Amino acid sequence: MSIINNERQAGPVTILELSGRLFIGEASDELDEKLQSFMSAGRLNFLLDCSHVSGIDSQGIKSLVRGVISAQKRGGKLKLLNLSRRVKEVLQITRLLTVIESFDDESAALQSFSFQNPPRADPA
């Protein structure tokens, strides 16, 4: 079963709805590969909806960290949405929530991606 349940766009942000366990093996490999392929194609801003993720292990954490670092190096961002209690506890213990932004509200999460608008020319 795929870890990525659904994928959609909200402006320049790719929202990936995850479900299952983000553990070593197919799940973490799939997320890693998907994020890297998006970034290669120029999609750099991600919101991972984790409301249906029941657990995470060290390999899952590695996938998140790699995604955050890869996005930042390219000028993008990766943020988390709707963490389950169990996943939130693991990320707090590992102190990852100090470096990966997490939200409980999708609209607040999307607003947190600040995008610069190109300057408008003033009419003469």
How is the secondary structure organized here?
Layout lengths: L3 E7 L2 E10 L3 H15 L4 E12 L1 H16 L3 E5 L3 H9 L8 E2 L2 H6 L13
Parallel strand pairs: 2-3, 3-4, 4-5
Antiparallel strand pairs: 1-2
Helix pairs in contact: 1-2
Structural features, described:
The chain is α/β, with parallel strands linked by helices. The protein has a single domain, classed as STAS domain (Transcription Regulator spoIIAA, 2-Layer Sandwich), CATH 3.30.750. It has helices spanning 26-40, 58-73, 85-93, 106-111; strands at 4-10, 13-22, 45-56, 77-81, 102-103. It has a five-stranded mixed beta sheet. Helix 1 (26-40) runs parallel beside helix 2. The longest helix has 16 residues, at 58-73. It is globular. 28% of the residues are buried. Mean pLDDT is 91; it is low at 117-124.
Query: If you compute it from the alpha carbons, what radius of gyration comes out, rounded to the nearest whole angstrom?
Result: 15 Å
Order of strands across the widest beta sheet?
Answer: 1-2-3-4-5
Under CATH, the topology is which?
Transcription Regulator spoIIAA
Assess the beta-strand content as a share of residues.
25-35%
Mean pLDDT: 91
* Helical percentage: 25-40%
Number of helices: 4
What would the principal axes of the Cα set say about the shape? globular
Helix/strand/pairing category:
alpha/beta
Uncertain stretches of 5 or more adjacent residues: 117-124
DSSP, total strands: 5
